[in-house]
């Protein structure tokens, strides 16, 4: 499939994990992709790996919590490509901080990346998309919003805030041909998860308490989320907006 042929996409947090899977999928389907990541070395390495496969990918190092850096990177990308059709917000941090130990400073540092950055990037890209009368935005939330477990209060609150901001932006952008959706991953075997499991334990063993509750009893993969992002951000999803696309192997149902 070449749904993104001739389109230009920016993926925040695209240097690894789910963000990298999304960048890969969009590029494989024809998009020119900018990997936006605070880690310039990791962004450059990710872009090189995809470029070596013949894909049109470039590194766009930036701190997505800084409006000036975001504006500069988006300006350069748009200047080179002429337009920005797709924005995927996957940048995030998820330190586990007990509520009793959480300070206002730690709260703000976590919400800055997980919620404020979504505001910063969307606020910058929306006028660009409006000028072209077209746009697709996918914002990452998290399945912990449903459970309230396995993370910090700041992370859960920020990811819940992404849902509300996305719904507002769907109303804001709809008349101009811009759709905005939330992508909500369930339990996913990201590199970060692999790095924190106990020594000698496999990912499957570590995630078994979660996967045993799923209809599809296996750990989710970053590519599973990229599949949903590719749909939500595709030209064919023009009547799909303001929604929460939950991808968790059927561990919970909503209606």
From TrEMBL:
Matching InterPro entries: KR_dom (IPR057326), NAD(P)-bd_dom_sf (IPR036291), SDR (IPR050259), SDR_fam (IPR002347)
Start and end residues of each Ketoreductase domain: 7-186
SMART domains attached to this UniProt entry: PKS_KR
Gene3D superfamilies assigned to the protein according to its UniProt record, in alphabetical order: NAD(P)-binding Rossmann-like Domain
Domain of life: Bacteria
PROSITE patterns linked: PROKAR_LIPOPROTEIN
Similarity section: Belongs to the short-chain dehydrogenases/reductases (SDR) family.
Entry-linked PANTHER family: 3-OXOACYL-(ACYL-CARRIER-PROTEIN) REDUCTASE (PTHR42879), 3-OXOACYL-[ACYL-CARRIER-PROTEIN] REDUCTASE FABG (PTHR42879:SF2)
Protein name (Swiss-Prot/TrEMBL): 3-oxoacyl-ACP reductase
